[in-house]
Predict the 3D structure of the following.
Amino acid sequence: CSRFNTCDENGDSVANTALFELLEKGKEFLGKAQCSQAQELLDSKILPLLQVPLVQSTLYNSILDDTSEDDASGTQSAIGHIFAQSILPVVDEANTQSGLTIAEVFHSPLEPITTPYDTEAVFDAFKYALPKMNIDCHSLGHSVDRPDLSLCLEFDLPASVENHANIALDV
């Protein structure tokens, strides 16, 4: 959690704390034979939270590879590839182009590596997939190593549009 500023005041991951609470709630639903409520909780809350550390680890490994001078053993590339492969089916289902980008960036560690990972492309790929993955981009935090990269889709209005909107408010 420290890599993405998502620790609570006790140093625990906010996502993990929320996950434990949701698992208890799911256990209550199942204990009362409320299976449809348990399934809804699983689909809408638990599964997205389980994906948070996979996304964060994929992002972190893209940053490590992008900034590392040498990975002659291929260890870092293999780790990045494994994390990317773990979340790739979900990303691909949410946004095919994002899935293709991540698959291309995190190619097989058995292939020769000629360039570092394209960290910006990885962040952008997740940015466009997250809304359909049911993951709140804010729950992923922001990278302390690359604070310039955001995971949230934010639309900046051109100044002229914003000025017209402000004028309309005055009328």
Summary: Residues 26 and 32 are 10 Å apart (CA to CA). Confidence is low (pLDDT under 50) at residues 155-169. The two ends are 47 Å apart (CA to CA). The first helix runs from residue 14 to 31.
